[in-house]
Amino acid sequence: MEATWRTVFGHDDPYDDQVDGIETVIEAADRDGFTVLEGACGTGKTMLALAAGIDRVRDPDSGFERVMVLTSVKQQLRQFETDLRTINADLPDDWRPVSGLTLVGKADVCPYSRENAAGIDDTNVYDRCESLRDRTRSLVGDGGSTSASALTAEARGQQTGLADSGTVGNARYLETAGEPAPYPSSMPEYEGGEFCPFYAQYLEDLPDDGDAIEAVPFDLTEKGLLTSEDLVSLAVSYGTCPHSTMGALVPEVEVVIGNYYHAFDPTTTESFTGALLDESTFVICDEAHMLEPRVRDLVSDGVGDETMRNAESELARVIQAVELDGDTEDARLVRAELEESDVTLEECKELRRFVADLREELDRRIRSHLDREHPGWRADPSSLPDEEIPLRDPETPGPDAVSEWAAEAGYDGGTWVRARSVGAVVERILDEAEDEGGEARSASTEPSEQSPRDGARATSAVGRLLGSWYRRDHERYFREIELSRSWDETEPEDSWRRAYTARLALHNCVPGDAIGDRLAEFGGGVLMSATLEPLDVFREVTGLDRLAEDGRPIVERTYPLAFPEENRASFAVDAPKFTYENRGAPGEGTGTRRLYGDLLRDVAESRGNVLVGMPNYAEAEWAAAHLRDRVAKPVLLDESSGDDATEALKREFFAGEGKVLVTSLRGTLTEGVDYSGDRLSAVVVCGVPIINTASPRTRAVRTAYDRVFGEGFEYALTVPAVRKARQAIGRVIRGPEEVGVRVLLDARYARESWDGVREHLPEPEREEFRPVSSDMLSLGLERFWDRH
Question: Which of 15, 79, 514, 580 has the fewest Cβ atoms within 10 angstroms?
Answer without folding.
Answer: 580
